[in-house]
TrEMBL record:
UniProt xrefs under PANTHER family: GLUTATHIONE S-TRANSFERASE OMEGA, PTHR43968
Name this polypeptide is given: Stringent starvation protein A
UniProt organism field: SAR86 cluster bacterium
CC terms in the record's Gene Ontology section: cytoplasm
GST N-terminal domain residues: 1-77
InterPro entries per the UniProt record, alphabetical: Glutathione-S-Trfase_C_sf, Glutathione_S-Trfase, Glutathione_S-Trfase_N, GST_C, GST_Omega/HSP26, Thioredoxin-like_sf
Transmembrane residue ranges: none
Pfam families (alphabetical): GST_C (PF00043), GST_N_3 (PF13417)
């Protein structure tokens, strides 16, 4: 099994977290998107990383990769067993992909005028802050167990300081900050980080 991974990409890091959490033996070939040979990128119809190759199977969507790995290597499970809970997890992952990822991607690319980027920072901070109370009830993202939803969310949290967003330290956000600390200290998360991603951490 080979994962062609962008060393500075939150979509790639999601998959690396799953590999690390499940202790899956896979060869991880890291590069930057613009440094990747065309013969590798051509395996994806979108010419984008990450790309997962497992024998004759080629997967080019990060979410599909993550669910494939969870089913192929079922221990520890990263999706709930029961259908309703699984559907809720998939709904949360879809929300992150559709609502939050475009915001963090805009900030990472930094191609818009600064005035527009400020609005995007405010919107993303508001969105993330709004879920803080849920972490009073659950240890992880709407769950008492670490799941694929956390694999979606944690790489975004890790990148916030690098795009100019600092989570305020206050009573409202304390549950979220405690969650963030807990996830960032997980061996699977730490093992998923590339050298470039480690440098994103705010001192």
């Amino acid at each position: 099994m080979i994962l062609y991974s962008d060393r500075d990409d939150h979509y790639s890091q999601r998959v690396r977290i799953v590999l690390a959490e499940k202790d899956i033996s896979a060869e991880i070939k890291e590069s930057k998107q613009d440094e990747t040979p065309d013969e590798i990128l051509s395996m994806s119809p979108y010419h984008k990383l990450p790309i997962l190759v497992d024998r004759d199977l080629i997967i080019h969507d990060p979410a599909v990769m993550m669910e494939y790995l969870d089913e192929r290597f079922p221990h520890p499970p990263l999706l709930p067993v029961y259908p309703v809970a699984r559907a809720n997890s998939r709904t949360l992952m879809l929300r992150i992909d559709r609502e939050w990822c475009p915001l963090i991607d805009t900030l990472i690319e930094a191609k818009s005028p600064e005035k527009e980027l400020m609005k995007v920072r405010e919107e993303l901070l508001h969105e993330i802050s709004s879920i803080a109370p849920t972490f009073k009830e659950f240890k992880f993202f709407m769950s008492d167990e670490f799941t694929l939803v956390d694999c979606f969310f944690a790489p975004i949290l890790w990148r916030l300081p690098s795009v100019g967003i600092k989570l305020p330290i206050n009573r409202h956000l304390k549950p979220l900050l405690d969650y963030q600390k807990s996830v960032f200290e997980r061996p699977g998360f730490l093992d998923s980080l590339s050298s470039l991603e480690r440098d994103l951490k705010e001192d």
